[in-house]
Amino acid sequence: MTDFTMTTDADGIATLTWDVPEKSMNVLSFEGLETLSDLMEHALADDAVTGIIITSGKPDFAAGMDLNVLATLKEAGAEAVFDGIMKMHGVLRKIERAGMDAKTNKGGKPVAAVLPGTALGIGLEIPLACHRIFAADNPKAKIGLPEIMVGIFPGAGGTTRVARKMGAMAASPFLLEGRLSDPAKAKAAGLIDEVADDPMAAARDWVLNAKDADLIKPWDAKGYKMPGGAPYHPAGFMTFVGASAMVNGKTKGVYPAAKALLSAVYEGALVPFDTALKIEARWFTNIIMNPSSGAMIRSLFVNKQALEKGAVRPDGIDDQKVRKVGVLGAGMMGAGIALVSAQAGIEVVLLDRDQAAADKGKAYSADYAAKGVSRKKITQDKADAMLARIKATNDYAVLAGCDMVVEAVFEDPKIKAEVTAQVEKVVREDCIFATNTSTLPITDLAKASQRPEQFIGIHFFSPVEKMMLVEIIKGKATGDRAVAKALDFVRQIKKTPIVVNDARFFYANRCIIPYINEGIRMVKEGVAPALIENAAKMVGMPLGPLQLVDETSIDLGAKIARATKAAMGDAYPDGEVDEVIFWMEDQGRLGRKAKAGFYDYDDKGKRQGLSDVVMRRYPQSENQPDLIDVQHRLLFTQSLEAVRALEDGVLMDIREGDVGAILGWGFAPWSGGPLSWLDMLGAEYAAHRCDELVAAHGDRFACPDLLREMAAKGQSFYGRFAPAASAA
Questions:
Q1: What 3-state DSSP class applies to 622?
Q2: Which one is predicted more confidently, 154 or 237?
Q3: Alpha-helix residue ranges (DSSP H) falling in 429-507
Q4: Residue 728 pLDDT > 60, yes or no?
Q5: d(CA 546, CA 598)
Q6: Helices (H), 554-649
Q7: Residue 641 has pLDDT above 80, yes or no
Q8: For residue 559, with 0-12 CB atoms within 10 Å meaning exposed, 13-18 middle and 19 or more buried, which class applies?
Q9: What pLDDT score was predicted for residue 665?
């Protein structure tokens, strides 16, 4: 069976069906592109064919370019990438022109696209080359071009066609933000043409009645003008100035795909359509050859999908789907866990010390559902059904039927031990017990359990409903079934899991705390807080370290510092940071919640700017460091901890190190994660830079033995550790 097949009916309509065998979604390989080209040639040359419909043999028209094809082309070099993309442009242009005369624009055959469901990436770029797009009235379907989210942009003509069809301003949410819409919204925006209960019947009717004028794309018609104005038009000029400012404001210049996309649209708008496609191909080639795009695709697409599909799940363990989950503690964290569990169709018991507290936790889900109904993201019936799955109680006996319990009570070992004992009195013997903690060692907490092999750590990030990462922590006694159960649960609630071994701060906090501390340490040194914060954002961090500690609360930082110092004794390295943190705590500057921290806030908690109070206490030095030096301090302090976590066996899979860093705390997504970033630098340079940072700033930047060894051997992390499928 080939990727594309063709049948012709009695009315002369040739239907090209895209159905890649043995795959859940259609991906476009160059073999498939060849078949599509040959079938189009045949249909256009056959006098018996009056029109053509391109559709999918799968309920969802979800599709994309086979990333292995792009990887193969990249290995062959820039010229091979450009030639391959231009070949694709040629096939789609063949569909678009459909045999019409170049001068008169007459004599072509109508080509319609029918989308039974989701159409993404190349699954939309092919329809965009057709003369009319019909979509099923399927509110669950998503239509759009999300390539920018993984570090590339629509390179099969989608960028040029959408910009010319809608204008640069209207196209920007779809191209620069990767916005996905349901069919009705996609039609309202002008991305597709029709939504129908029976899109195939509607397409057939259109094909049978289409006239020559219906086949001419606006950009092929005489006198075409770009909606909103071309770059040399006064209105268009302002649009592109604004778009450039928006891109640089949001990306700080570190995401090359956004700038390349905008360049392709701008330069393409100055020339005829076919030349614009060549410009798009050149910019797309530029991005494919950029190491950032490869790293982003690997981490945010290939590796993320692999982890979500169970790449690190223990072998030989049957399905551990959760049917009824108990959630202990109805505060913000517990309420969020209950919400996402109920959304996934899981029966939930939400338990707290008294009924009022439990009811308040359930009210969190009720408020969330009400907002969803008001915004038409969920129907009232579904909202009611979701809420009905949550049983709020203060009675431990109600947990009896749970096959998994997630404890999310206060971060106190004694309290956690008490609730563990209470739970194990009422649940069945095969119930898995998961403790939600960000810092407390799982092995120690498991001592309170009668069944430590069924005791595991689950670290959710706040707010639970928004954060995509869940960190699963194995204690020394944790068994494989507990790991499998936790992974299956995370999959059910549509989050991305990483599995790490037990150690202080696990993985995420182990890396993010040094980032915060380095920022605070620089404040004490006299580095301008504005330089610290902007350096972080300009290198791709979503928040500067000072804003981040304000958001998480300074008293929490002080509590962690005291606990860490007590545990480490003389080996504790952050005394200079503590001086600042403890002073802030004494001053009541506890962050956003206190409306005072490293930043000042108004009465509503809106950030007003960096605080003069802090800068008076820690005045700025006359000689400020270079931007790159500040950025390297902030990135190396995180990345070296990631290396040490791998070295110590806390990280068991290199993919989890990068995916966890991006999804967990936002480590510069353009880099693909801390280990990918070190691969970009090269181990030899990274080791040398460590030595420079040690000489200038201290032993916390000491090069890990693993990195030093890799530098000597000329190795990379993905060359040495990655599974074969992720090494590209």
A1: coil
A2: 154
A3: 442-445, 480-492
A4: no
A5: 6
A6: 554-568, 575-586, 612-617, 627-648
A7: yes
A8: middle
A9: 93
pLDDT confidence of residue 568: 79
> How many Cα atoms within 13 Å fall on the side-chain side of residue 433?
31
Q: How far is CA 222 from CA 102, 233, 433, 520, in A?
A: 12, 18, 69, 62
388's tokens: 């009905």
The residue assigned the tokens 């569909």 is: 95
User: Can the peptide bond before residue 463 be classed as cis, meaning omega within 30 degrees of 0?
Assistant: yes
Which residue from 309, 317, 311, 310 is spatially nearest to 432, judged by alpha carbons? Answer: 317
**511, 537, 495, 550: which is closest to 669 by C-alpha?**
537
**Which three-class secondary structure state does DSSP give residue 551?**
helix
Terminal Cα distance for the chain, rounded: 29
DSSP-derived letter for residue 72 is: H
d(CA 587, CA 490) in angstroms, rounded, equals 41
Is residue 193's pLDDT more than 70?
Answer: yes
Q: Which helix (H) or strand (E) holds 392?
A: strand 390-393
Give yes or no: 233 in active site.
no
pLDDT at residue 614 tops 60: yes
Within 10 A of 466 (CB to CB), how many other CB atoms are there?
A: 9
Per the DSSP assignment, residues forming a β-bridge with 69 are none
Q: Which position has the higher pLDDT, 59 or 453? A: 453
Task: Let me know: does 30 contact 69? Beta carbons within 8 Å.
Answer: yes
> Where are the strands (E) in 541-638, listed by range?
599-601, 607-610
Tens digit of each residue's pLDDT (9 = 90 or more) over 446-472: 999 999 999 999 999 989 999 999 999
DSSP state of 399: G
305 Cβ contact partners less than 8 Å away, ≥ 6 residues apart = none
Q: Which residue of the set 459, 632, 688, 697 is catalytic?
A: 459
Confidence of residue 724 (pLDDT cuts 50, 70, 90): low
The SS3 of residue 650 is coil
Which of 564, 560, 540 is CA-nearest to residue 552?
560
Tens of pLDDT along 1-37? Answer: 578 999 999 999 999 999 998 888 888 888 899 999 9
Other C-beta atoms closer than 10 Å to the C-beta of 716 total 17
For tokens 């080209």, name the residue.
Answer: 37
CA distance 577 to 563: 14
The angle formed by the CA atoms of residues 113, 118 and 120, to the nearest 5 degrees, is: 80
Contact 676, 639 (CB under 8 A): no
